[in-house]
Amino acid sequence: MSDPNPIRIVRVTSNDLPKFEAFLRNDARQAEPSNPESPQRFVAGLHESLSSFDFLSSDSHWLLAAEIDGQYVGYLTAVRIHKVDGRIAVLFIDELMVLAEYRRRGVANALWQEVQSIAREIGAWRIRLCVDPDNQAARELYRRVGLKESPILLCQQDLVT
After folding, report:
1. Which candidate, 98, 127, 106, 125, places its Cα nearest to that of 115?
2. How far is CA 69 from CA 5, 7, 43, 50, 63, in A?
3. Which of 48, 2, 45, 3 is nearest to 27 (CA)?
4. For the stretch 124-135, what's the b/e string if a residue is b when 16 or more beta carbons lie within 10 angstroms of its beta carbon?
């Protein structure tokens, strides 16, 4: 018997922006329920980012969306980091997010399977991501899909305040 709500993974293009904007508005309402301006702020942030760099047309950036019943319910962004040696590339997962009501329904796994296919296709040596040590649900997901935690210290510098 087939799944009544199959998950379809798509690479978001400029043609898909209205659907992705709707997703961002839903995400904003969940992330900041007391802030009525957050849905428009999330969408404006997307367009500001796209005006700086058209990552939707890049061969080194993927914005993947998980779609159920015609709406996006999760997304993943991945960036190819080129290496100067035979390792070719690392595929870095910057964000993986699923709307709360769609968690534990295979959405993150479907996104992960697609990013693994992309990594193999581009000849990536490794897939990497960072996760908050307190995010136990994400850490369990990453262990389940075969990621191994490494004792690496993340160093960063905020350039915009």
Report:
1. 127
2. 6, 8, 22, 27, 19
3. 45
4. beebebeeeeee
Q: What digits encode the pLDDT tens for the residues 9-51?
A: 999 999 999 999 999 999 999 999 999 999 999 999 999 999 9
Q: Residue ranges per domain, the chain?
A: 8-144
CATH of 8-144, one of 1.10.10.10, 3.40.50.1820, 3.30.70.2740, 3.40.630.30: 3.40.630.30
What count of other Cβ atoms lies within 10 Å of the Cβ of residue 140? Answer: 10
Question: What is the rounded CA–CA span in Å between residue 110 and residue 14?
Answer: 22
Is 47 strand, coil or helix? helix
Quickly count helices (H) and strands (E) in the chain. Answer: 4, 5
